[in-house]
Structures are given as structure tokens and as C-alpha cells.
Amino acid sequence: MSSNLERICTVDISLATPISNDANFDNSLIIGPLPKAPKAVIPDVFVVNSLEELTEMGFIAVGDSADPIGVAARVAFSQSPRPHEVYVACLPAETVKEEDKADETDEAAGSIVADTLTNALGTNGWYCIHSVGLTKDQIREVIQWTETQNKLHGYMDDDPENPIVEAGIYLRSFPVYPKVTEAQPDEEVPLENKYGMSIAMAAKAMNFHAGEETWALKQLNAVTPSKLNTTAIKKMEKANFSYVITVASKNITQGGKTGGGEWIDVIRFRDWLQNDMQVRVVNLLVVNPKVPYTDPGISLVENQMLASLKEGQKWGGIAPTEYDEDGNANPGYTTSVPLASGLTSTQKASRTLENCRFTARIAGAIHVVNIKGCLTYENLM
Question: Alpha carbon 244 to chain centroid distance?
């Protein structure tokens, strides 16, 4: 029977499988020293789903002899909701210097820090780096490396007047203040604050999809809030430091900016939108036999741009269409693509489509509300 069908009609079906998107904007990578007493061979880069997995490898998470990575992971898994997984990258023991040598420059150690992070790129699934147990020079190395990647980086800095890096320069790293008081000696800073502040903040914020979160006003567990007066808070704001204080009996984050002064959530949403639009357009080009260099083909590209912007609007990163008092629309985004008739033969022969553009309004977030009211004995009718 089937052979008779084949004589009249043949059907071949191919699978147009779209490219999978392996980018992640939700998970953290802790970079720090090896445990003091490892119980097993520690991989250069690995992922754990619980604190127990780390302690079985020899990382100590509590007590005076705790390892920085162990403490950071404990704080991360203490958040509610807890992260599903945490990535870890360990530096060779000889590259992490003693505290009394923290200000010395070591180019060899610095290159190993960058090499460790570059090696970690081969393991997909993480987005935000957290430096723990590193010297100031090594933290600067992480900051500089992160600036070249579509990643974020959080670190602890206890001196807003003399920060590890100058404020206003780096847009992908965010400093977090760990001390309970300005006068607190370094040796009395809680280990959870010293090693866990930035990852606690990230674990809480990255529980939300890119675009629907702010990194301020997040309630954190397992860390001790700072007791700061108005003068100290102004220092934090000037240096773009984030910090945790108690408001209405809740320990919440304040700040939420990168060291460069941009909001952390804006950087994360930008990275997500870039990746989402790239994947959509590449899938269009790969799945179809071809996308012609004509107006209909160019429209297909624009449709993918629009789909990505609409998705970004759905998640709250892009503002919706809004209207002024006269009813005039202020769209959340606009796109423009060239007409095929306006392109030169050289441009078409290159098979590269240029001048596809969009503009989108950032939705932003409300952090502070100022309300003025009036109480009166008069009737309000």
C-alpha cells in the first residue's frame, strides 16, 4: 500500500529546530579561595544545589574558621525563596594573599583571576559574580573583567570615602556596605555581611524575571542591617553603595545602583533584551530556507524586533503606551527598518541588513514616595 502511495505522492518532512537560548540572567557565581581543609578534589568551576554539597567538599560555612565561599553560599541559600543553584569558581590557593598584603599589586595573581573567570564562561548558567575573600587588587581585576562581559558583579566595600574603585566609572559592578556601624572594626564585621551581602541581594532580586524587579527595597535574611545616620547615608549615596537598614521592623536593601551610577535592574534588563532579540532574529534566519532581501523579508526581521520589545514590555522593563491630558499617545517603543528600494545594490549584495533601529522607554521603578495632604473641618462636597 505504502509503495503505491509513494508512486503518486512523496512527502519528506524536515525538522526546523530553533536555536536554544542558553543565556541565563538568574544565577550567581561565587569566586573565592579554596577551602582550608578540602575533603575532595575541588573542580575549577562547579555548581551546587544545596549548602550540604559544599560542606561535603570541605567548605566550612559557619564559625570562626569558616571559608568565604561557604559563608556566601549559606547566605544565598538562606534567602526566601532560595536560589535553585549557585555556581562556584575557586582560585588556586597561592593567588589569594594574606590580609596584611591586601594592598600589594600582584600581576600574576591578577591574570589568574581573569583566567579563572574566562574559564568559568565555558560553564553556562550564571550571570552575577560575587567576589569573596579576595584582596582589593583582585576585586579590581574582577571589576575590570566584568566590564567587558554581559555580566554583573557584586562585592563588599567598607569605605565609601575611599572606595576600591572610583564611583561613576564601572557600570557592571555594584559595591555593598558590610559594616553594622561606621566605627565597627573589621574583625567584628559579621561574616555573613563580609562575604554574603551582595549574593543575598542578588539572590533576592534575580528571583524575578529581568525587567520586573528593582534591587532596592528587598528584604534579606541572614545578614545584619547597618545602623547609619543621615551623614553616613549621604556618603553611601555619593559612592553608589548599596546597604541594608531596618525599616518598619524589616531589613531591606537601599541603593540598588552599580558603581557607575546606573540602576542594576536596568543593566540586567538591557542584557536580557539584547540576548532575547538576538536569539529571535537568528532563529528567523536559521529556521527559514531564506529571508529575502525585500520589503517582506525586512518586515520579518522587524516583526522579531517587535516581538522582543513586546516581551520586554510584558515583563515590566519597557513602559506601556501612555497618554497625556489631551489623549495623545506616548508609545512604549518604536521601531524603524529601511525600505528595500532605498538600499544600494552593494548593500544588497553584502547580504547584511543595516539601520534596523528601535527606541524603548524604560519603565523604571518607584523607590520613594512623597505625599502631601490636608486635614480640614470643611465639607468636601
Answer: 19
- Give the cell for residue 186: 573589621
- C-alpha 210/C-alpha 68 separation (Å) is 28
No. of H helices and E strands in the chain? 10, 12
3 state SS of 205: helix
Which residue carries 524575571 as its cell?
209
C-alpha cell at 49: 544545589
Residue 102 CB coordination number (10 Å): 13
Residue 379: φ, ψ to 5°: -70, 145
The C-alpha atoms of residue 281 and residue 265 are separated, in whole angstroms, by 24
DSSP-derived pairing of the beta strands 243-247 and 322-323: unpaired
* pLDDT, mean of each 10-residue run, the chain (381 residues): 70 67 91 95 96 97 96 98 97 62 51 94 96 97 97 98 97 98 97 98 98 97 98 98 96 98 97 95 95 98 97 98 96 96 95 94 93 92 81
Crossing angle of the two packed helices 107-120 and 136-146, in degrees rounded to 10: 40
Closest by CA to 176, choosing from 241, 251, 250, 260, is 241
The upper half-sphere exposure of residue 342, i.e. CA atoms within 13 Å in the direction of its Cβ, equals 8
- Cα separation, 381 vs 256, in Å, equals 44
Cα angle 255, 63, 91; round to 5: 70
Sole residue written with cell 516581551: 311
Element (H, E) at 29: strand 28-33
**Integer Cα distance of 112 and 90 in angstroms:** 11
CB-CB neighbours of 22 under 10 Å? 9
- The pTM is what? 0.91
Burial of 300 (0-12, 13-18, 19+ CB in 10 A): middle
CA distance 135 to 126: 23
Phi and psi dihedrals of 118, rounded to 5?
-60, -40
pLDDT at 122: 94
How far apart CA 354 and CA 348 sit, in angstroms, is 10
Q: Alpha carbon 215 to chain centroid distance?
A: 10
